[in-house]
Amino acid sequence: MPCPALIIPVLNGDDIILCQITSQNVEDNYAIQIEDKNFKVGELKQATNIRPNCIFAADRHIILYKAASLKDKKYNEVLDRLLIIQDLTPIDFC
User: Fold this and answer.
1) Residue 53 domain boundaries
2) CATH number of the domain where residue 20 is located
3) What does the buried/exposed string (b/e) look like for 59-80 if buried means 16 or more CB atoms within 10 Å of the residue's CB?
4) Distance of alpha carbon 31 from its chain centroid, rounded?
5) Which runs of E-coded beta strand occur in 1-94?
6) By three-state DSSP, how is residue 82 classified?
7) Considering Cα of 54, then 50, then 75, then 60, what sign does the dihedral take?
8) pLDDT in tens, 46-90
9) What is the model's pLDDT at position 11?
10) Can you give the pLDDT at residue 47?
């Protein structure tokens, strides 16, 4: 079953960076609840949470379709939360 994810941002090439979206009740300091009123276009069929602390990269060819588009205010809230997480997390390189 396909799972929704938020693309942040659109990059050149085949790789994209995604942020997890879940319908599970998430109680952490980073989850952002989204509702139908937060979409410019489209919808998700239930109340969901964006999890900016759960990001991953994937090949853009795994994307099946575009379900919805967030309004700018909510998208910027996600980006702001990502910046907060980036400031809190030390980055190690392998």
Assistant:
1) 5-88
2) 2.30.30.110
3) eeeeeeeeebebeeebbebbee
4) 10
5) 5-7, 15-22, 32-34, 39-42, 48-59, 68-70
6) helix
7) positive
8) 889 999 999 999 999 999 999 999 999 999 999 999 988 888 766
9) 80
10) 86
- From residue 33, alpha-carbon distances to 9, 55, 60, 72 in Å are 19, 16, 25, 15
- Least reliable range by pLDDT among 6-10, 20-24, 49-53: 6-10
Residue showing tokens 């996600």: 78
Report the alpha-carbon distance of residue 52 to residue 81 in Å, rounded.
7
Amino acid at 48: T
Q: Give how many domains the chain has, as a whole number.
A: 1
Identify whether 94 is part of a domain.
no
Whether the predicted pLDDT of 10 surpasses 80: no
Question: Does residue 94 have a pLDDT over 60?
Answer: no
Please check whether residue 93 lies inside any domain of the structure.
no
Distance between CA atoms of residues 76 and 83, nearest Å:
11
The amino acid at residue 31 is: A
For residues 17 and 57, the answer to whether their CB atoms sit within 8 Å is: yes
